[in-house]
Design goal:
The complex is a heterodimer of chains A (705) and B (107).
Chain A: H1 3-13, E1 24-29, E2 35-41, H2 49-59, E3 72-76, E4 82-86, H3 92-107, H4 109-140, H5 143-158, E5 160-166, E6 175-176, H6 185-195, E7 199-201, H7 204-210, E8 221-225, E9 235-241, H8 248-294, E10 305-312, E11 320-326, E12 332-339, H9 344-362, H10 368-384, E13 390-398, E14 403-409, E15 414-417, E16 424-427, E17 445-448, E18 454-458, H11 460-463, H12 475-484, H13 490-505, E19 520-527, E20 570-576, H14 582-594, H15 601-624, E21 631-639, E22 642-649, H16 676-684, E23 687-693, E24 696-704
Antiparallel strand pairs in A: 1-2, 1-3, 3-4, 5-6, 5-9, 7-8, 8-9, 10-19, 11-12, 12-13, 13-14, 14-17, 15-16, 15-18, 18-19, 20-21, 21-22, 22-24, 23-24
Chain B: E1 3-10, E2 13-22, H1 27-40, E3 45-56, H2 58-73, E4 77-81, H3 85-93, E5 101-103
Parallel strand pairs in B: 2-3, 3-4, 4-5
Antiparallel strand pairs in B: 1-2
Helix pairs in contact in B: 1-2
Classes of the chains: A alpha+beta (705), B alpha/beta (107).
């Protein structure tokens, strides 16, 4: 047996056309990756092989084609140079062992040639036979045909009367030469699985003990099942070896055939699954195209109202929708809706709702509440027949006056940021969601936008967005963020919000955040009537140089924008001075901290903690201990490189105002239960000041940016 | 309520799992539970899982201190588990990180 003959053998066995580069040696390794031998070969590599080799080098191995385990073949260029290629095909795994032995024999030929000669011939014949079978298996086409080809090969190689592929379900019954085994299939399969490993039996009694149904018709039996696999399990069983009994070597052959049959069945299952997936993907793609057509992407371009939207569906299709369009009477319609759920059902519901609302609005329905009521009537049938529901906000903004009438069916996430005071008001819902209860009428609300004011209408996907620790973003945090965020345009705000949400969902370990659970929508409208082109009404540059009166923080006149424009940003909110409000205040401050882009989480946390200690202090000492009740007015301003937090209450003064400036840390070993609040404020803020004023108190904390 | 509390006690071993914010609105029940754990047995061994607590202020600290004192008075031990890095700040600034025993979050 010459090297040439071997190379020819290998050529037929592999999918790659030789030749190999000069000076190349060929290593074979088994499926476990153990190299078994090397062989020098002369030839040149075809070009198409390079990428295959590169990939193998990069990954360490190449995956076999579906259902067939890979076999590694290392092609050695120079002594230390290793590349790997793969042999694919159903019989690839079996090639290693006999071919390795075969080649080893060649290597050893100087010493043991005569002894190995007959073994080599047998091996060569066996491998040749297997290769021929491989071709017929590949050509068979159907699963049944492939199993049949494999069974035929098994019967011939093992020299038996006949055999059967088990279990006989999922494909037609496959027997070869012993069709009487057919009816026994379930019993044989059960017994084989129970046995667990490769089975060799060489007398009739043992066979009957294994499977009574055989009734003496089998005097020898060999069987094996493929590796345990959740989806697919196939085995082979053959009976009545022609000469002598089954030998130990037959064990490997039986096992091999079982594995191959299982690989065929698994490959078939995968192909079916892939077809189903492709079909589904195609339908989803069509639906997505429809969705794109229904949800308007473009917002109107207006000078008076700057519009932008953050829209991120959780999957390809979403239940959130938004719409901004000019009404026949010249007002601007702002619409945000959320159809419960996500994916196809929600998207379909959304498309219905959106279409109804657009039609009604363009026909001149000028009252938001009436618009919603009429849309609800149109949608009622759909909603009654499903368990879905829809929340909606619709606003009609008169651009000339800034007056907006709105109606809100169970939505409740429309926020109005007042540029002048830095206050963010949450516009309350005026009715229940569609589809939840029988509608008992929807009310109407009103608000007035001033120059520089911003409207942000969100879906609950923003409010309920969880951090990596599972804490929801929350309305308070959003209000704090909106109050303090710096944005010269609606688009800029959208980007600032998007990056804050990213910061919020970031994980400590730097892995990418968990997948988005719900659709996220934030429609932003910045109102700036009479805006001259090229001039930024929100933060006029001229005003930044004007001195700021810190004690009253009054608004400044700007000769460019007129009265009401605020030079630096500030956020204000009034809280009730009660313990129950501490949580809302904490979240609000966390939102404020999130709006400082330069700050990382630690700095924002310091701001929140120190401010919260101050707030708690006021609740306890100014109100609770003194038996009083009242509000706490919070104002956060940025001034140059500092941030000022001030808390104003109308409660009782501190007994000992002098301690505010004194160092106060109790010795930790004393385990005192109080006194840490003030110390924390002093440590975390640059400066803490307190002043009792007539009728109340003012605390101020200063933080360096 | 800003905090959710789960507690288990088995003889002298007590386990408390908190979720949410430990502040002036939620500290009292925590204080009470720690006290009752301490008084329930000799040499109580108490673990408090804080891995789902996003915020602790000085009032929350005070509740934990009062628990620590009650437990120490019975020769017991108190371990705070899974304290988040930002929450550790409040212990570090007040130097109470030298006084409490900390452990990793339960797997």
């Amino acid at each position: 047996m010459s090297v040439d003959a071997f190379v020819e053998l290998l050529t037929r066995a592999s999918t790659w056309p030789l030749p190999l580069p000069e000076g190349t040696a060929l290593f074979l390794s088994d499926s476990m990756g153990h190299p078994t031998l090397a062989l020098p070969v002369d030839a040149a590599l075809p070009p198409g092989l390079h990428s295959l080799i590169e990939e193998a080098q990069a990954t360490g191995r190449i995956a076999g084609s579906e259902g067939y385990p890979p076999v590694r073949v290392a092609v050695v260029g120079a002594p230390r140079d290793c590349t790997a290629v793969t042999i694919t095909g159903p019989l690839a795994p079996i090639l290693c062992a006999p071919v390795a032995a075969f080649l080893q024999a060649i290597f050893a030929q100087e010493v043991e040639m005569e002894i190995a000669a007959s073994q080599m011939q047998d091996l060569y014949d066996q491998v040749t036979f297997l290769l021929n079978t491989s071709a017929s298996v590949n050509n068979a086409g159907t699963v049944t045909g492939q199993l049949q080809a494999l069974l035929r090969a098994a019967v011939e190689l093992l020299e038996v009367e006949g055999g059967i592929v088990l279990p006989a379900e999922g494909h037609e019954l496959v027997t070869c030469g012993a069709s009487w085994l057919g009816p026994l299939a379930p019993e044989l399969w059960q017994a084989l699985c129970a046995h667990g490993e490769v089975l060799l039996l060489n007398d009739a009694a043992a066979c009957d003990a294994f499977c009574p149904g055989l009734e003496g018709r089998a005097d020898s039996l060999a069987g094996a099942a493929g590796p345990v696999d959740d989806e697919v399990s196939v085995g082979v069983l053959v009976v009545n070896k022609r000469t002598g009994g089954f030998r130990a070597a037959d064990r490997q052959l039986a096992n091999f055939f079982a594995e191959q049959m299982q690989a065929v069945a698994r490959r078939d299952r995968l192909a079916a699954a892939r077809t189903a997936e492709r079909l589904q993907a195609h339908e989803m793609e069509l639906a997505r195209q429809m969705y794109e057509a229904i949800v308007p992407r473009a917002l109107p371009h207006l000078l008076s109202t700057d519009l932008a939207v953050l829209s991120r569906p959780a999957s390809d299709l979403g239940g959130d929708f938004h719409l901004v369009t000019e009404l026949p009477d010249g007002r601007l319609l702002l619409l945000v809706g959320d159809a419960a759920g996500k994916g196809l059902p929600a998207a379909l519901l959304m498309s219905q709702a959106s279409a109804s609302l657009r039609a009604l609005a363009s026909c001149g329905e000028g009252h938001p509440a009436r618009l919603l009521e009429r849309a609800e009537a149109l949608l009622r049938d759909v909603l009654n027949n499903t368990e879905l529901f829809v929340t909606l906000f619709v606003g009609m903004l008169d651009i000339r006056t800034g007056c907006m009438h709105y109606a809100d069916a169970g939505h409740g996430y429309a926020l109005h940021r007042h540029a002048g005071s830095g206050e963010v008001v949450a516009l309350p819902a005026t009715g229940a969601p569609f589809g939840v209860l029988a509608l008992s009428g929807i009310g109407e609300g009103e608000t007035r936008l001033a120059q520089g004011d911003m409207l942000v209408i969100c879906s609950d996907g923003v409010i309920e967005l969880p951090s990596a620790q599972g804490e929801q973003f929350g309305l308070d945090r959003l209000r704090g963020f909106l109050a303090f965020a710096e944005a010269a345009s609606a688009q800029e705000f959208v980007e600032t919000l998007a990056s804050a949400l990213r910061k919020y969902t970031a994980r400590d370990d730097g892995l990418s955040p968990i997948g988005q659970v719900d659709d996220i929508t934030a429609l932003v409208a910045m109102y700036r009537p009479g805006r001259a082109p090229g001039h930024n009404a929100a933060i006029p540059p001229a005003c930044l140089t004007a001195p700021l009166d810190t004690s009253t923080l009054s608004t400044q006149e700007c000769e460019v924008c007129g009265p009401g424009a605020v030079p630096t940003r500030q956020a204000t909110r009034r809280f009730e001075g009660t313990r129950e409000q501490i949580g809302a205040f904490t979240q609000w401050m966390q939102g404020v901290g999130l709006a400082v882009p330069a700050w990382h989480a630690g700095r924002a946390y310091d701001l929140t903690l120190a401010s919260e200690e101050c707030f708690t202090n006021v609740v306890k000492h100014a109100y609770e201990d003194a038996g009083q009740h009242g509000p706490i007015d919070v104002r956060v301003t940025s001034q140059g490189d500092q941030i000022l937090v001030s808390l104003v209450d109308v409660g009782a003064p501190l007994d000992r105002p002098d301690i505010v400036a004194m160092p106060t840390l109790p010795d930790p070993e004393w385990l005192l239960e109080g006194g840490y609040g003030l110390y924390l404020m002093q440590q975390l803020a640059e400066d803490v000041s307190y002043e009792a004023v007539p009728g109340g108190n003012t605390w101020q904390l200063r933080f360096r940016l | 309520m800003n905090v959710q509390i789960k507690s288990e006690q088995d003889g002298s071993v007590g386990y408390l799992e908190l979720e949410g914010r430990l502040d002036a609105a939620s500290a009292q029940p925590v204080r009470d539970i720690l006290k009752s754990f301490a008084e329930a047995a000799q040499e109580p061994r108490i673990r408090v899982d804080l891995s789902k607590v996003s915020f602790i202020d000085s009032t929350g600290l005070a509740a934990l201190i009062s628990g620590l004192k009650a437990i120490r008075a019975r020769n017991g031990s108190l371990t705070l588990e899974g304290v988040r890095p930002e929450v550790m700040r409040v212990f570090q600034v007040t130097l109470l990180d030298r006084v409490f025993t900390f452990g990793p979050a339960a797997a």
